[in-house]
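Appendix B. One record, verbatim.
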Amino acid sequence: MPAKNHLNPQQIDQLQKALREAKKAKIRERILILLLLNDGKTPSKIADFLGCSVNKVSKRVSQGRP
């Protein structure tokens, strides 16, 4: 699992912009997972928050991309 604050400020800004502009819910969810991980949330807490499985969150963590 990535460490807290693993994204630099430019990456965070890009992801936040993409989150606002993304039309597909699936893309927004993936971006949100990366941002929440960067804030130090655990995969299980993210899964509870989003209402998805821990496996889904873990998959995004291992891929490291939206």
